[in-house]
Amino acid sequence: xxRYQHRSWQAAVAALGVLIFLSGCGSPIDxxxxxxxxxKQEQPVFRAIAFPTDEQTLAPGASYSLTLSGITPAxxxxxxxxxxxxxxxxxxxxxxxxxxxxxxxxxxxxxxSSVWVTAVYKQTRATMRVRVxxxxxxxxxxxxxxxxxxxxxxxxxxxxxxxxxxPADYVPADLIQPNIPFAGQGDLEKKxxxxxxxxxxxxxxxxxxxQNLHLVGISGYRSYARQKAxxxxxxxxxxKERTSQFSAYPGQSExxxxxxxxxxxxxxxxxxxxxFGETKEGKWLAEHAAEYGFIxxxxxxxxxxxGYAYEPWHIRYVGKEIAQEIAQKGITLEEYFQGK
Length: 340
Ligand SMILES: [Zn+2]
What we know:
- This protein has three domains: 3-33; 48-132, Immunoglobulin-like; 136-337, Muramoyl-pentapeptide Carboxypeptidase, domain 2 (2-Layer Sandwich), CATH 3.30.1380.
- By secondary structure, the protein is of the alpha+beta class.
- The chain has nine helices and 18 strands.
- The strands form six sheets. It has a four-stranded mixed sheet, with no helix packed on it.
- Residues 255, 260, 262, 314 line the site of zinc ion (ZN).
- Keywords: Carboxypeptidase, Hydrolase, Protease.
- This is D-alanyl-D-alanine carboxypeptidase family protein.
């Protein structure tokens, strides 16, 4: 009991004494006690305050009414009036909150960005995370051939798969050659990646080298024209149906984004097969890629979702924030966009 509560009890006892003196009977005392209890119920003492959830996923431009509960010592939840609570956000460029507790995500906010919302009620705090995801349906349009084409080909979080094609004329504007060991000689198209991905890959390969692990670039960027030639060659050799199981239709290869690269190691004889996943390099890559903003894009057991068999060698740059969330949750890029 704090000093203030002591004083109010003293005041209450004094008030009761006066009531007893004045009335000389029991009933006003009960009434007074009831009034005191009533006052207590109106402003219960909370051991904590809490949001209904720790994490909320919202689209750019979306609004959300924040609600907050007080938790009594008996674990009862009491919803708090919004005018008694003050809310703040950690990054007003991503989301803002008004005096009514209504949170609105900025229209320009990007997939992967997030804010912490802090609520303060009588010096008690609670926090929740709001993360921003642009729904996949908002980044697609159906072209005149009935093909679903992405409208955000240059986004670091772009999803390209068997249901989402890149525009045939898309060429990344910032392709460079990362300074890492590559298989093969010469300045080849496949030795390029987009700038941010290229620099992240340099750091990843250097970090591996410090552990005496040797990663080698095999195949990075691939133009639409090159993918078309590869696909058509495969169809000639293997037929359309078999080809679709291992070779992407032009526009649907992630390599065309300039954000994906196949890597291997001398320990796997520079092969692109499952054996790479069993090497020290492959294991290190699976464990540490996310620290550099990369994901293993086609993990084991997720073929139904990604459309591809396990490829321990194919890494995709999405930026650290998204990569680390995907790695921690053990999900795929597709599942990330489903809000998992
Ligand atoms: Zn690949």
